[in-house]
Write a structure and sequence with these properties.
The chain has 241 residues and is an alpha/beta fold. It is built from nine helices and ten strands. Strand 1 and strand 2 form a beta hairpin. It comes from Pontibacillus marinus BH030004 = DSM 16465.
């Protein structure tokens, strides 16, 4: 579970990128986090993961405060960023072993999971190649494999399907469903609204740093008294200054 309480962040000291955000991402659900460009979505994710400091408020992951207990909080989640261009000079297998070392994944478990996951995602044959030679989709797959390697309770996925081929995209979505069936957490950010409508149990929409909606699709349609698509409701919610 992720708890965001009264969180505020500003870059210039004037306009707030995130303004007094309160949000609970529960266990056992795929939680979709939506917003137009510049809405505060990426800022929120970077505060959750500890990349950016929080100006005001608190964020906890599985009970660990990300500011007061950053190591324990980081052990509890796996993060797929929207740009998977990291550790490019490492070979794929070097990167995965690096992740395995950080999270103390036993050698036997690690080897089995690396083989299984990379074969599932179709990158097993390129593990000895530098990541800088990978396509965008392959880089995305190696990052996702690294996240799954240590089996964190909380998945934080920022545009994880970008660049994935249809088979890998389907596989990851099934993994997300299976993860929540085990009572664990998936926090999922994307611009592809059809995927959110198909996949997510609960949706939050942020705009201009302020939470505009939080609930499931039936709540949303009841609130807006419409049978329209998520796309139509999203545009209605966010089409203002």
């Amino acid at each position: 579970m992720i708890e965001i309480q009264n969180v505020t962040k500003s870059y210039s000291g004037s306009k707030k990128a995130v303004d007094t955000l309160n949000l609970t991402i529960p266990d056992g659900k795929i939680f979709g986090f939506l917003g137009p460009n510049g809405a505060g979505k990426s800022t929120t994710i970077k505060m959750i993961t500890g990349i950016l400091p929080i100006d005001e408020g608190t964020i906890t992951i599985n009970g660990y405060d990300v500011t007061q207990n950053p190591i324990e909080a980081k052990k509890a989640f796996g993060y797929v960023p929207d740009h998977p261009d990291m550790f490019l000079r490492l070979k794929g297998i070097e990167y995965l072993n690096f992740i395995g070392d950080i999270y103390e994944v036993p050698k036997e478990v690690r080897e089995e999971k690396i083989e299984s996951l990379t074969k599932t995602f179709g990158i097993y044959e390129v593990l000895n190649d530098p990541i800088q030679t990978y396509s965008h989709g392959m880089r995305q797959k190696i990052i996702v494999t690294g996240v799954l390697l240590h089996e964190p309770d909380v998945w934080i996925l920022d545009e994880p399907l970008t660049g994935l081929d249809p088979k890998s995209s389907y596989t990851l979505k099934e993994m997300m469903r299976e993860h929540t069936r085990k009572g664990k957490t998936v926090f999922f950010s994307t611009h592809v609204l059809e995927v959110v409508e198909q996949l997510c149990d609960q949706v939050a929409i942020i705009n201009n740093g302020v939470l505009e909606f939080n609930g499931d699709m039936s709540d949303m349609k009841a609130q807006f008294q419409t049978d329209g698509s998520l796309e139509q409701i999203f545009l209605e919610l966010t089409n203002h200054e």
